[in-house]
Design brief:
CATH class: Mainly Alpha
Radius of gyration: 19 Å
CATH topology: Hypothetical protein af1432
Bound molecules: fe (ii) ion
Structural class: mainly alpha
Order of helices and strands: HHHHHHH
Number of helices: 7
């Protein structure tokens, strides 16, 4: 991922972006920085396959959820921040990102809020973001059921490892 690193290294040195790692369970199990990086990598690879701007996709991926829940007016009843695409876009604009990156960030919540992606790169980010959170959800659900099934079948039995000596 040499080029991916070149495209995103400066962003990952930003202390405020690193702070996203402290936002645990962004959707289900992974933190917000892990989620953003996964979306960025998937966007980058897809962009290269589809001849889109891989740099725009990589950067928009890292930045698309650059927000913190510290503004109550943005919370909906589920506690989700329904305006975070605006906050993330404003943060990206603040560090001088291109309009192409801003546009992709602004439409990454399409279907949940209004505003359809308008560029190839924006569509790629939209798809990558959804795949990443759905995958996280699917793994989390699988782990949940595995635990339930194990508890049901084996209860509190602890497996004894054979003694090596
Ligand atoms: Fe988001
Ligand atoms: Fe996201």
């Amino acid at each position: 991922m040499g080029r991916f690193d070149d495209y995103t290294a400066d962003l990952l040195r930003n202390a405020d972006i690193q702070r996203l790692a402290r936002r645990g369970a962004h959707h289900f199990s992974i933190n917000r920085l892990e989620h953003s990086l996964a979306a960025a990598k998937l966007s980058y690879v897809t962009a290269r396959l589809l001849n889109a701007d891989a740099r725009v996709c990589a950067r928009a991926g890292v930045l698309h959820d650059w927000f913190f829940e510290n503004r109550d007016e943005h919370q909906n009843r589920a506690g989700a921040n329904i305006h975070h695409y605006k906050i993330s876009a404003a943060n990206a604009r603040g560090i001088g990102e291109s309009e192409a990156v801003i546009q992709a960030i602004e439409t990454h919540m399409w279907l949940y809020v209004r505003g359809k992606p308008r560029t190839k790169e924006a569509w790629i980010l939209w798809m990558a973001d959804n795949i990443v959170w759905l995958t996280d959800g699917a793994w989390s659900l699988a782990r949940f059921f595995k635990k339930r099934v194990n508890n049901f079948m084996y209860g509190s039995m602890t497996r004894q490892e054979p003694n090596a000596s």
